[in-house]
Design brief:
CATH superfamily: NAD(P)-binding Rossmann-like Domain
Number of strands: 10
CATH architecture: 3-Layer(aba) Sandwich
Distance between the termini: 27 Å
Strand content: 15-25%
Radius of gyration: 19 Å
Order of helices and strands: EHEHEHEHEHHEEHHHEHEEHH
CATH topology: Rossmann fold
Largest sheet: 7 strands, parallel
């Protein structure tokens, strides 16, 4: 049966999420074009190179999301693209425009690829949760978008990059009548995440205290994100955006547990003990994701 699995592309496979999506696809028998950006010889890149030596269905190449032709080459003969763009150097204001341009190039390259059937675009919950008075909104779901000016005012560059790049991708995908879904993940956790994905993790956590108090701080295991990516591709009825998280962080005990899991990125005072018992109201909703996982996508 694996012989019938089509060829797909993961770009950028050298990001933390991209690597786990790549592993998930290979485990299901897909032939994968792993396009990696020139971020230096990171630990993840070394692992992908080692995998290439033993995985018959893995083809590794380098691509630059600002070089349209290199993306065209990466997605050639592929029926799906799993887009995983993250700046390994962290996020400042200048990164916003670069990520938007990269997203546009990726979607346009897919539009020009005859074999392309679907784009799975990895975005973030931060593209939906940042605006004035979010605490007054009872339900925050896939219809919600972060406010650009609010993000600029608060210097939430990661959230702004994810908001604008996803909006640009959706606009172009609709214009080119491409089949696209987006996975809006919470804070991604997983094996050695503090070591392998430190700057992206800390960029996500800008404004963490406000997220926590407003009931919109959510986490998700990277294996679950990878599984949702594959499900979103394989389920023909999947459509639109999917909020992807498996736990809300809305008590002090859960916040302390999160901080401990991200050591040494986040450090707690020695012998810290939980003081409060307050439970903040959960505002995020992921009913749509649950339907996808259950097999009734939209």
């Amino acid at each position: 049966m694996d012989q019938d699995k089509p060829t797909v592309c993961v770009l950028d496979a050298s990001t933390y999420v991209g690597y786990w999506v790549l592993k998930g696809l290979l485990s299901k028998g897909y032939t994968v074009h792993a396009a990696i950006q020139k971020n230096g010889e990171t630990e993840i890149v070394k692992k992908i190179r080692d995998m290439e030596a033993i995985e018959e269905k893995l083809v590794v190449s380098t691509a630059d999301v600002l070089d349209y032709h290199s993306i065209l080459e990466a997605v050639k003969d592929c029926c799906a693209l799993f887009c995983c763009l993250d700046s390994q150097d962290g996020y400042e204001d200048k990164m916003v425009d670069l990520e938007v341009r990269g997203a546009i190039n990726v979607v346009e390259a897919c539009a020009q690829t005859e074999s392309m059937e679907k784009i799975v675009f990895n975005s973030s919950l931060t593209a939906a949760i940042w605006r004035e008075n979010i605490c007054s909104q009872k339900d925050v779901d896939e219809r919600s978008w972060s406010d650009q000016e609010f993000c600029r005012k608060k210097k939430l560059w990661y959230a702004l990059a994810k908001t604008l790049s996803e909006q640009a991708a959706w606009a172009l995908a609709m214009d080119r009548t491409l089949n696209m879904v987006s996975i809006n993940a919470g804070l991604v956790l997983g094996p050695a995440v503090a070591k392998k994905n430190p700057l992206v993790t800390m960029s996500y956590l800008q404004g963490a205290a406000q997220m926590y108090e407003n009931g919109v701080l959510a986490i998700v295991d990277v294996n679950f994100v990878a599984d949702v990516n594959v499900r979103a591709f394989e389920d023909r009825s999947s459509c639109g955006r999917y909020f992807c998280f498996d736990q809300m962080v809305n008590t002090e005990q859960e916040a302390v547990k999160l901080a401990e899991s991200l050591s040494p990125l986040i450090s707690l005072p020695p012998r810290y003990e939980c003081q409060g018992s307050e439970v903040y109201a959960e505002r995020l909703r992921n009913k749509k994701l649950n339907k996808l996982v259950e097999g009734t996508a939209c």
